[in-house]
Structure formats: C-alpha cells, structure tokens
What we know:
This is Regulatory protein zeste. The chain is mostly helical. The chain is about 55% helix and about 0% strand. It has helices at about 10-20, 25-30, 40-55, 60-85, 100-110, 115. Helix 3 (about 40-55) crosses helix 4 (about 60-85). The chain is elongated, with a radius of gyration of 22 Å.
Amino acid sequence: MEDSKKIYCSKTQKEMLIQLLTKDSQLISGKFTSTFTFKDARNRWIEIADTLNAIPGCVKDWSQWKRTWQDSRSKVRSKKAMVNRHVNGTGGGPQISQTLTPIENQILDLVNPITIDGDETISMPVTNFEFGDISS
C-alpha cells in the first residue's frame, strides 16, 4: 500500500469556496425545489470544484468539496456554540482561549444563526409549581 500524504486545502481555496458559496444561497441552503434540483446542485458543485482545483492546493472532486464545506460549517457551528456556552456560563473558570478566525467568521455569516443561537422569536413558556399542604 502506498504511503501518501494528505494534502489540505490552501487558505486561498477556502477563501474562494466561501466567496463562491456567498453568491449561491440555494446551494448553501441545500433545499431542493421544483426549480432547484439535485442535478442543478451537482452541476454547481462541479463548477466550484473546477474553480477550486485550478488554485494551488488540494485537488478534489465535487462531492469531496461539498463534504469540505459541510465539515467546515459543522466545525464552525460547534466552535461558536462552545464559545457561547462559555460566555453565558457562571464563571469562575479560566478564560477561554478559543476565538473564531476571519475565515470561520465568514463561514459563520453564511450559516443560519438559528442553528447555533436558537430562535429568539420563540418564548419559552413559564411553568409555575404550587405545592399544597399534603398533610391532610
């Protein structure tokens, strides 16, 4: 078996991926409709893969670039949620050293904030417990 090194995406490729996806809200949402089908999405990912593979760095097919986007998006969501949990915590522990990089902030701008922060328009119901005298 051949010992091959894994080549990671270059910073330029990541920036270009974000730039290309910024222009394509249908592809970011991943929701198919009668006017935006899986075939349309695949063709757009193929175009993105061709553009990104022309830049020095890693070479991937369209499905691998799509997976790169999904993985990046997932990692940024998790990191942002961790930072939010720490900020909203009760304190007493050491200061968190995790911060988002500029590229991660750009990815975060493309991600639906409800998936991280929750929907602020929905109020939580208030539950009151009343305990009566149980000694009867």
